[in-house]
Amino acid sequence: MTMHFDFTDLQLVVNVAAAQSMTKGAERSFLSLPAASGRVKNLEQRLGTTIFFRSSQGVTLTPAGDAFLRHARIVMRQLEHLRGDMQEFADGIKGLVKVCANTTAMNEFMPDILASYLAAHPDVNIELRERLSHQVVKAVLDGSADIGITAAPAQDRGLEFLPYRSDRLVLVTREDHPLAASESVDFEDTLDDDYVCLAESSAIHAFLLQAAEELGRALRFRVEVSSFEAVCRMISAGVGLGVIPHTAALRYVQDLPIKIIDLKNPWAVRRLHICVRELDRLPIFAQELVKLMQEDASEAAFEGSD
Length: 306
Prior knowledge:
Blueprint: H1 7-19, H2 22-28, H3 33-47, E1 52-55, E2 58-61, H4 63-90, E3 95-101, H5 103-120, E4 124-130, H6 133-141, E5 147-150, E6 160-174, E7 184-185, E8 195-198, H7 203-214, E9 221-225, H8 228-236, E10 242-245, H9 246-252, E11 258-263, E12 269-276, H10 284-305
């Protein structure tokens, strides 16, 4: 059985059944009587059964036709919902925004921003993915992300890079660790110690592995945890060292016996950018998310200057 029919077929069956007349059903469907009759005949042939009883008094549904009518009405309602949703997308008031961000942005900056944004946009959903910075740029380039937050250098790759925030990675040790007396250290000098890190799926995990590999060294992960707080608590328990964003470390240094130490490595200081293909061509609701992120960054910079 070849189940091929279009919206006109469905609408025609509904109209003919409602009017109990092929002629009136054709008129309601804006079809000529021969065209309507031909469509119904072809439909019945494809279904392998009749859907109308025909008589001099008009037409009535067969049992198969009655079942077809129920499904046709369901499909038509779904199509109307689809049409309405697509119109809302076109009008820029409903949609999905795909965002890729590095670990710092995803954990430190985006939660509060998205909470505010989603409260103001109940018809918009966010798909947030954590990626390494170079993967963020690639995702925006290939269209799998609408907005990226990356520490990768701004480059002329057919993308727009908008200044966002600055942050730096720092070493966190227990207060009584030998390195705790240092104001700053080189990452390489920490690699003889065990490390506490975020899970393997996190971007910062892969970043630190890569940094160690470039030095020809291995990073000794003693334990992997799910949050920056857990990293700091494990460090305070003497499990190992950790490298996390400075903004995260500041939240826990007052309550835990840990020490924050600057890293001398240039890669530790990161300038984050918002990355998009063409800001003006994003849907209105996506542009509003970018605007909110920029406003949040401006407020943070102003507070940091006080």
